[in-house]
Write the structure tokens for this entry.
Amino acid sequence: MRPERRRTRLLLAASVAVAALAVPLGVHAASGADSGTAAAPPEPEPAGSECRTTIEGSRVVAYCHNPYPSTDLVQLHTECARWWDVDADGAAVAVGPGRTVRLEDRCWKEIATAWVSHRPAPV
């Protein structure tokens, strides 16, 4: 056999082998891109403290318990009923995992509303 025919056959066999390997890879890439089955984003970890607020006259007390593994910052906000009484926003308190904190505030006269805000502690 002539060397040119052997070379032609080898090149033909090599190109068929490369095509046979490349086609499944192209089909796999195309099916993954077109299928629309992207990975779902991870669900966030549960976080936040559970707070109970009690108002008695001119005093408010809130107990906040954090059952989750991340630290939560809680802050008591008090709105007084009288226009001349100063509304207050307490300092943010860190509630560690499995901990309970007590927050308290008061007005000179009656309390209109009181609530606790939450935010995650900086890492």
About this structure: Strands lie at 50-56, 59-65, 72-80, 88-89, 93-95, 100-106, 111-120. Helices lie at 3-34.
